Amino acid sequence: QAKAMGHGSLRFFSPEMSRRAKERLALEADLRGALERGEFSLSYQPQVDLRSSELVGLEALIRWTHPVRGNVPPSVFIPLAEECGLIVELGDWILQTACRQIRRWTDAGLAPRHTAVNISAVQLSRGRLLDSVTSTLEKTGVAPEQLELEITESFVMLERELSFQSLADLRALGVSLSIDDFGTGYSSLSYLQQLKVHKLKIDMSFVRDMMKNSSNAGIVKAVIALGKSLGLEVIAEGVEDSDQAHYLRDLGCDVMQGYLVSKPLPDDEISKFLADFSKRKPIF
Ligand code: C2E
Ligand code: MG
Ligand code: MG
Ligand code: MG
């Protein structure tokens, strides 16, 4: 907001606000150069089928190693990148990096069925996403079926017209679509049906204490039932212990992702994880 009003308006802020505004500007300035300096990387977190225990997918998650601040979490810099428009360029880099990695895994016989990439609302609304996905798949030789895109529920519900067309185009390309952080937005059921996405990801906040909190358990059950009735796959995020895994499996949830299986790992470690997974003891 300070930016929209012009830098001169900063002097009307309280010292604390001004300190925070400066901090933001500094971080934003660092963010602009971070891509060129090679400070970003992707980590990958496994997704495991709750019935067969097979490793069915991975989710790519961005990491920023700042030379001074160290690891800056995506919850801090993604919103900043969205506000300053950098997310479009960064989003292309994420897509390319993930697809190159998928290609290497495919060549090595290690690729899981799909790898999911998080897409920001801003990437969708700028309208270049379809071109970007199409050309990245072509350049890297990755099959559309190997790529999944995660879009948050709140965006899909806020920008109905826009997301409807963009998602239809992406679907036609053959990539699969999942709705991230499901349960936190206000989905209309009929709209959800029209969208024809493939998966729902139950938000971590409901999974976290569903064993103790009956209203969260109720939401988890409702999302699973909804997924079933619409013919969608349901993934639970943030599964940390085997009690949660068993509970979810008994409710009919299809896939889990969380620290129980593994934290997100950098590409060399996840490659080793993929190679060793079938030899491991069952996790739950
Ligand atoms: P998300 O897409 O819902 O990702 C799930 C987050 O939960 C990740 O945090 C992951 O590390 C964390 N997580 C996974 N399993 C567990 C668990 O068992 N326990 C706990 N406590 N946490 C778990 P992360 O990597 O910090 O990412 C946070 C959010 O930042 C993501 O939420 C996503 O919205 C955004 N983000 C991350 N990477 C990207 C990206 O490449 N592009 C875009 N546009 N957004 C990204
Ligand atoms: Mg996600
Ligand atoms: Mg999520
Ligand atoms: Mg999230």
From TrEMBL:
Q: What is this protein called?
A: EAL domain-containing protein
Species source reads: Herbaspirillum rhizosphaerae
User: Could you tell me which residue ranges the EAL domain spans?
Assistant: 24-278
Q: Which residues of the full protein are shown?
A: 567 to 850 of 850
